[in-house]
Amino acid sequence: MRVLVTGAAGFVGRHLIRELETAGHSLVLVDVRPPAPAGSDQYLFIAADVTDPPSVESAFTRARPDACVHLAGIAYVPVGWRDPIRTLQVNLLGTLAVLESVRRVAPDCRTLVVTSAEIYGRDDPGHPLTEDAPLQPQNPYAVSKAGADIATLLSARHYQIPCLTARPANHCGPGQSSSFVVPAFARQLAEIKLGLRPAEMKVGNLESLRTFIDVRDVVRAYRLLLEKGTPGKAYNVAGEKRIRIGDLLEILCEVSGVRPRLVTDPDRYRPTDSVPLLDTSRLRQETGWEPKLSLRQTLQDVFQYELQQLRGEHT
Q1: Secondary structure (DSSP) of the chain
Q2: pLDDT value for 2
Q3: Which domain holds residue 182?
Q4: Residue 287 forms part of a structural domain
Q5: Cβ neighbours of residue 45 under 8 Å, at least 6 residues apart?
Q6: Is residue 283 in some structural domain?
Q7: CB under 8 Å to 263, separation ≥6 — which residues?
Q8: Can you tell me the mean pLDDT for 108-119?
Q9: At CA 255, angle to CA 251 and CA 257, rounded to 5?
Q10: pLDDT tens digit sequence for 169-207
Q11: What is the residue-averaged pLDDT of the chain?
Q12: Do 163 and 50 sit in the same domain of this protein?
C-alpha cells in the first residue's frame, strides 16, 4: 500500500517508517519538518501542519494514498494543562482536518487515527478495560484525544470512510524525548556512567503504577491494524502488567550498572496514581499481534541509545 504518515518526524513516526518499510509498503511522509531516519529520504516528503486544513488537503491530493496513519499531535499530557487551547487545536481539530481531507479527496483511504488510553481516565475498575468501556478523560490532553477518537468512529459510521482508531497505553523505546520518565531516567544514568554528573539522580514519585510496552511492538500493531483492522472499530494497544516506577528504575540501574543516590525533586513529584489495565483481545484476535520485546530489553535499548547519544555529543 501507499501509506501517508502524519507526524512522521516524531518519535513514534520514525519507528513506524521502519516497520512499514520492512513490510514492503511505500510511504509518503507528512510533518512540519522532514524526518531523519535512515532511508526516509527515498520517500516523498510533504510539509503540512495539521492545524492548517488546506495544507493537509493539499498533501492528500498530492499523495493519493491507499492508507494513512495519523500520528501528528501533542503527546505530552502536561502540555494539555499548560496550553489546553493549543492541545485541542492540534489533537482534535488536526484530526478533523485529516478526516475531512480523506473524505474529500481520498475516500477509499484506510485511515488509522492514533488516540490514547488516557481517554479511559485513571480510575481502576479492578479488571482490564475493553474498547466498549466508557470514556472518562481527566485532563485536557485526554479530552482532546477522546474527541479525536469519537470523531473518527463517527466519520466511519456517517460517511462510510474506512477509518479506525488505536488507543495506545504508555510506550517507550530508543529516541523518545527525555520529557518522559524512561528516557529521563536513562539519560541521567548514562551521564553518571560517563562521569558527566555526580552519582546522584533526581526523581519524582516512585510509587505510581504504569503499564509500558515497547514502541516497536506498538508500531507493529499499527501496521497490522492498517492491513487487517476493521473500519469503525477502536483497538487497545497496551502492555499486560503494571509496574511501579521505582521498580522500573531498579531494572534500569541493573542494566546500566549504575547505583546512584536518589534525590526527590519537588518539580518532578506528582501524587501517587495508577492506570487501568487494558484488554487487547480484539487486537490479538483480529490481527494476530503479540508483543515480542520484554520490558528489560526495552530499558536496555533505551539506556544504550542515551549512552551513544551522549558519547556523540562529547567527542
Answers
A1: -EEEEETTTSHHHHHHHHHHHHTT-EEEEEESS---STTGGGSEEEE--TTSHHHHHHHHHHH--SEEEE--S---HHHHHH-HHHHHIIIIIHHHHHHHHHHHH-TT-EEEEE--GGGG-S---SS-B-TTSPP---SHHHHHHHHHHHHHHHHHHHH---EEEEEE--EE-TT--TTSHHHHHHHHHHHHHTTSS-SEEEE--S--EEE-EEHHHHHHHHHHHHHHPPTT-EEEE--SSEEEHHHHHHHHHHHHT--PEEEE-TTT---------B--HHHHHHH-----S-HHHHHHHHHHHHHHHHHHHT-
A2: 96
A3: 175-210+241-276+293-313
A4: no
A5: 8, 28, 29, 30, 31, 34, 35
A6: no
A7: 200, 201, 202, 203
A8: 97
A9: 110
A10: 999 999 998 888 999 999 999 999 999 999 998 888 899
A11: 93
A12: yes
Kindly state whether residues 12 and 111 are assigned to the same domain: yes
| Grid cell for residue 153 | 468512529
Global pTM value: 0.94
Give strand pairing partners of 203: 264
Query: Is the residue at 150 inside a domain?
Result: yes
Residue 265's CB: how many other CB atoms inside 10 A? 11
CB neighbour class for 13 (10 Å; exposed up to 12, middle 13-18, buried from 19)? buried
Beta-strand pair 242-244/209-211:
antiparallel
User: Are 122 and 276 a contacting pair, CB within 8 Å?
Assistant: yes
Residues 57 and 160 in one domain: yes
**Alpha-carbon torsion, ordered 144, 150, 155, 158, to 10 deg:** -140
Q: Locate 263 and state its grid cell.
A: 534525590
Rounded alpha-carbon distances, angstroms, from residue 102 to 9, 21, 78, 84, 257: 21, 23, 30, 26, 50
Q: Residue 146's pLDDT band (boundaries 50, 70, 90)?
A: very high
What cell was used for 224? Answer: 497490522
Please name the amino acid found at residue 211.
Answer: T
Q: Examine the domain organization and report whether 232 and 250 are in the same domain.
A: no
- The domain tally of the chain equals 2
User: What is the DSSP track for 5-27?
Assistant: EETTTSHHHHHHHHHHHHTT-EE
